[in-house]
Each structure stands twice: as structure tokens, then as C-alpha cells.
Specification:
This is DUF2071 domain-containing protein. This protein is mainly beta. Helices cover 10% and strands 49% of the residues. The radius of gyration is 17 Å and the shape is globular.
Length: 252
């Protein structure tokens, strides 16, 4: 297994012919530390938990997806724009590629949910959702409709703060992820993404009532999150899935 690639705040390679384009807007990044052994069994074949100072993390990431488009076509205004809330873990494969693993992806548009489930084998779920801003306070709500567990929910409220000019190594580790690992047709693969460097802001978590993490098969957090961040967002390009990754095992 290769050594994990360096964590870089800028995308390592351009994507000149994107498979998908979209914008990720008004993002809340809420993270808890977790023992890698507790989530190792949830990783796709060929990946293991990625760690920072011996710990890995579970992220609850809420945002607005905006104008998803295929290839270089203009983004779709209605079906391509919707709130989304993801539960994600952090992964690394035998090639040293760092990424994320989505355990659940709640979204409010049924058509993109079906396309994501059928076309990309992603764990998309149809939910009632909203993202509302009043001054510097942003509230994200989600209540699952299908396929279940029905009623799985989250309500996140945060107050946005000052721009972060020099993110910490952990903040880069949690946000500068340039791909995802997933079980696509034909086996595990890596889907790269490219976007400008994240504009990150400090944020204060005012409320977090959720059971999405436990519903995704991850032990529910019992402590306060170790990191809460906000970003106004970035334009994104997604590339085509890279070749399957060979099986890796945790070092003894």
C-alpha cells in the first residue's frame, strides 16, 4: 500500500472534461472524532479509514446543491438545486488517494435521489428539507421520507463567524478531500472532484438534534463536535470513476 498522499488545500489535478458540474453552497461542516476500528467495517472494499493523529472522523455536512449539470451543459435550475445533508467518513486506498465515504445522502428532490441511487449506487435518500438564513444564523432541517428509516432527522443551527485565513491541519484534513470512494458497478472505485480552495469561516454550533449518524450505522456521538465550520461554497467539477482499487488491510 502506498503512503497516503499529502493533504493539499488546492485540488491536485484539474478535471478538463467533467462528468458533472454543480455548486455546493452554504455549507455546515460538523465533525466528531471516532476510533478507526469502530468504522473500519463500513469502508468500501479496497479502502481503510484515513486518520489524523491516530483518529478518524464522522462528518455531518449540510448544504445547498445548486444547478447540477451533465458534462459542460448548463446546470438544471429546479431538479438540479436542492438541500442536502450527508453523513460521511474519511478513507484512503492502496494508491494513497484520500477521499470520503458517504454513509447517507439526504436530499429533497426525488429525481436526483433516484438517479444517484441507480446511476452511481450512492446512498441517496428522499427527505423533507430546508436551509434558512437570518443574518448570521443558518438552520438546516431534514426529515427522511424514503426509503428509510422513515423519520430519521437532523436540525442544525449555527452562527457564522470570521473568515479563516490559515486553516489548521485538521481543518484541511476534514475539508480538502479531492474524491470519494464508492462501490460502483464493477467494484470499488474513486470519483475525483475539483474546486477552488475552500473559503472557510469559524462557526458556533447553536443546536444539533440528529439521528442520521446512528441511522447510517455509525455509533452516535456522545461528546461535543471537535470542529464546526461554515463555507459560503464553491463551484465543483466531478470526474469519471477511476479504476477499481485493490484490497488493503489495516497494518497490525
Amino acid at each position: 500500500m502506498h503512503q497516503p498522499s499529502a493533504v493539499t488545500p488546492d485540488a491536485p489535478t484539474p478535471i478538463r472534461l467533467p462528468l458533472l458540474t454543480q455548486e455546493w453552497l452554504d455549507l455546515a461542516f460538523v465533525h466528531w472524532a471516532v476510533d478507526p476500528a469502530a468504522v473500519a467495517g463500513l469502508m468500501p472494499r479496497g479502502t481503510v479509514p484515513d486518520t489524523h493523529d491516530g483518529l478518524t472522523y464522522v462528518g455531518l455536512v449540510a448544504f445547498r446543491m445548486h444547478r447540477v449539470g451533465w458534462f459542460r451543459l448548463p446546470g438544471i435550475p429546479y431538479f438540479g438545486s436542492f438541500p442536502e445533508t450527508n453523513v460521511r467518513l474519511y478513507s484512503v486506498d492502496a494508491h494513497g488517494r484520500r477521499g470520503v465515504v458517504f454513509r447517507s445522502m439526504d436530499a429533497s428532490r426525488l429525481v436526483p435521489v433516484l438517479l444517484g441511487r441507480i446511476g452511481f449506487r450512492l446512498p441517496y435518500l428522499w427527505s423533507r428539507m430546508s436551509v434558512r438564513s437570518v443574518g448570521d444564523i443558518v438552520t438546516y432541517t431534514s426529515s427522511r421520507r424514503w426509503p428509510g428509516p422513515r423519520g430519521a432527522r437532523s436540525r442544525i443551527t449555527l452562527r457564522t463567524g470570521e473568515r479563516i485565513h490559515e486553516p489548521t491541519p485538521l481543518e484541511h484534513f476534514l475539508t480538502a478531500r479531492w474524491g470519494m470512494h464508492n462501490m460502483f458497478f464493477g467494484g470499488a472505485a474513486y470519483l475525483p472532484n475539483h474546486h477552488p480552495r475552500w473559503p472557510l469561516h469559524r462557526a458556533r454550533l447553536l443546536a444539533c438534534d440528529e439521528d442520521l449518524i446512528a441511522s447510517a450505522g455509525i455509533p452516535a456521538p456522545t461528546a461535543a463536535p471537535v470542529s464546526v465550520l461554515y463555507s459560503p461554497g464553491v463551484p465543483v467539477r466531478l470526474g469519471r470513476p477511476a479504476r477499481p482499487v485493490p484490497t488493503v488491510t489495516l497494518a497490525p
